Known about the structure:
It is built from 8 helices and no strands. The chain is mostly helical.
Amino acid sequence: MKKIWLxxxxxxxxxxxxxxxxxxxxxxxxxxxxxxxxxxLYFLSATKGIQNGFIIIIVRAxxxxxxxxxxxxxxxxxxxxxxxxxLAFLFAHLIYIRFFSLVRMSEKIKLKxxxxxxxxxxxxxxxxxxxxxxxxxxxxxxxYGIVISxxxxxxxxxxxxxxxxxxxxxxxxxxxxxxxxxxxxINKFYESFEYAGIAxxxxxxxxxxxxxxxxxxxxxxxxxQ
Length: 225
């Protein structure tokens, strides 16, 4: 059954990308919400029967991501809609932060100064690039940037967990999530470019998939110990 949900996810993501390319709003409105719904159903199917507190944490992150997806489909109508979508994804990242933090602590992994420096350089560079174009959205975007940077920092530490495959998947997913949000910010505030929508959705869709695949591998392997 879980493979069916992955196939559904793939079809929904491809349909959404086609909708973005063709500028077909109806196809986008139908397909985009189904991407994360399919991932939720896959995740629940893959972890069925397992008693683990991480499961509800991941589901909550996906639900807030889904809400963000829904809201941001209409952000062109009103700038406040963009802020609501930003808030939904802020909560999703905060929940992912909790997940990665709990994994890091359970694996007794210390924070790596080199990774902290890397993330600080990324955040500083992005804000420096966008700052003059953010206007009244400076504070919300900077706060969101801090949150997603912390999420990325903790995800980088997944490289050091015992389950290397799970750690690599989660880290790559977080990296693509950061890439997606960075492309979105550059396109929206700095300079728009052709096919930005496709790049944003493709990196975002794969990001969520990789995080979920990694989380499934981590949770299922932990349940067998």
